[in-house]
Design goal:
Blueprint lengths: L1 H19 L6 E7 L5 H15 L4 E7 L2 H9 L7 E2 L3 H9 L3 E2 L17 H7 L13 E13 L6 H4 L14 E4 L2 H12 L1 H6 L4 H4 L5 H14 L3 E5 L3 H6 L5 E5 H13 L5 E3 L5 E11 L5 H11 L2 H11 L2 E2 L4 H7 L12 H4 L16 H4 L2 E2 L8 H12 L5 H22 L12
């Protein structure tokens, strides 16, 4: 923590002197999620950039924790960030609103690492609805993952956790933590509730990702209300910590948070697991883009290229716990572990045919059968207000004594966990879509 603060402070002081002279030709402004990059990778970029271009560059590194805050600063405030890291639905919105610049892939004599992006990520970005613009021309994948259920096998079987119907099971009353993230709750539950239509072929999962009809919103709202009394807490970050303390048995969460909890739980003798329910779910992506008001496009392009090397992708994954969009043989070889993961997974969709049967972490790298039942969310535009209203009605004022105890305890627990986890890069984490 201290290192990060000192690092950002030093950058801020450097930036102040540079801005005083109104010189942005040697300044790179980066806007990223908290704890979402290996600090040494960031610190080494200026030297790498000088080796490649012969030019000096100083970094101004700022953090955000909500996609919409980042977007507002660019869309309304015309902030001159050179490179930012939004999620897929925000990339979609930025493309539609003409807020992104195309990324020139010509780096002269410098190797073009953008070719290291997995074909799966390229294919998914092709599905981003950019109003006629191909997202792969404007965005480069960074990290990705799934949404599912983390559970404690001591109390919940894998079979039970393999269906979204677990949420209404009375046995988890008071032991369920739900992500306070309406998009990531609405889409998977709509998939679950529309199983008959999906099986009949009258609708596809991709089509459901655009469905914000009043009928569908009401369907999800009624389902959420049917088990809301079982919810011990609506959380953006503390649920995984309570799972490691066995204060919860089930956590509706993201794969990256689940992996963090699985690792932390193992250190204190608590076994946790994660599964994407059989009915289907969503798969999410974060990517690097160059905003319309960027002042140092060249350094931004090189920074994105720099992050896409296999070496830096591995370093970033080790530091933050999420999964890189890079699909090279080097990354695959680094992730294989037959001792820790005795069962094989088919990752041919991500790494190619040579990865059709590999021993790899299935939480971080889901088998092809899992991703085939996952769909990518889209920007809901003006309909977002309807989803927010539904979310408010569901959560309502049902906070009970346990909820308040959890909130108070979460603050204390977060401080303790933060101190411990900061001492080991392996266990640092990033929570998205707060």
């Amino acid at each position: 923590m201290k290192k990060t603060v000192l690092f950002l402070a030093a950058l801020a002081l450097s930036a102040f002197s540079l801005f005083a002279a109104e010189d942005r030709s040697h300044v790179l402004k980066i806007y990223n999620w908290a704890d979402y990059i290996d600090e040494s990778v960031l610190e080494e970029f200026p030297e790498w950039y000088k080796q490649q271009t012969g030019e000096e560059v100083e970094i101004i590194y700022q953090l955000f924790d909500i996609n919409e805050v980042m977007l507002s600063k660019i869309e309304r405030g015309h902030e001159d960030f050179d490179v930012v890291c939004p999620s897929e639905y925000i990339i979609e919105r930025m493309l539609r609103n003409d807020l992104l610049l195309p990324i020139d892939k010509d780096f002269g004599d410098t190797p073009n690492n953008l070719g290291n992006i997995s074909p799966y990520i390229i294919e998914r970005f092709n599905k981003i609805d950019g109003a006629g613009k191909n997202a792969n021309d404007y965005a480069v994948g960074y990290m990705w993952g799934t949404t599912g259920l983390m559970y404690n096998p001591k109390f919940i079987t894998r079979e039970e956790a393999s269906s979204w119907s677990l949420l209404t099971n009375p046995k988890i009353s008071g032991k369920l933590f739900m992500k306070d993230a309406f998009r990531d709750v609405y889409s998977p539950l709509l998939i679950f509730l529309k199983q008959d239509e999906l099986k009949a072929g009258t609708v596809t999962m991709d089509e459901l990702m655009y469905d914000t009809s009043e009928e569908s919103i009401a369907l999800v709202e009624n389902y959420l209300k049917s088990f809301k009394e079982s919810v011990a807490g609506w959380e953006a970050d503390f649920g995984k910590e309570f799972m490691t303390k066995e204060k919860g048995w089930v956590n509706y969460t993201w794969s990256g948070d689940a992996q963090w909890a699985i690792d932390e739980g193992a250190l204190v003798g608590v076994t946790l697991d994660y599964v994407v329910p059989a009915e289907g779910s969503n798969v999410w992506f974060d990517g690097w883009v160059i905003p319309r008001y960027a002042k140092n496009v060249k350094a931004a392009r090189y920074f994105i290229n720099y992050l896409c090397s296999s070496e830096n992708a591995i370093r970033n994954m080790d530091a933050i716990g999420y999964v890189s969009a890079i699909g090279t043989p080097d990354v695959l070889a680094n992730r294989i572990d037959s001792v820790a993961y005795p069962e094989v997974s088919d990752l041919s969709y991500f790494f190619g045919p040579e990865a059709s049967a590999v021993h790899i972490n299935p939480v971080q790298y889901p088998d092809i059968t899992v991703v085939n039942r996952c769909a990518m969310m889209h920007d809901t535009g003006d309909r977002t207000e309807l989803l927010l209203a539904m979310w408010s009605r569901v959560k309502g004022d049902n906070a009970n004594t346990l909820t308040f105890v959890i909130i108070i305890g979460a603050v204390a627990a977060a401080i303790i966990v933060a101190i411990v986890s900061r001492n080991s890069k392996k266990h640092r984490h990033h929570s998205r879509r707060k």
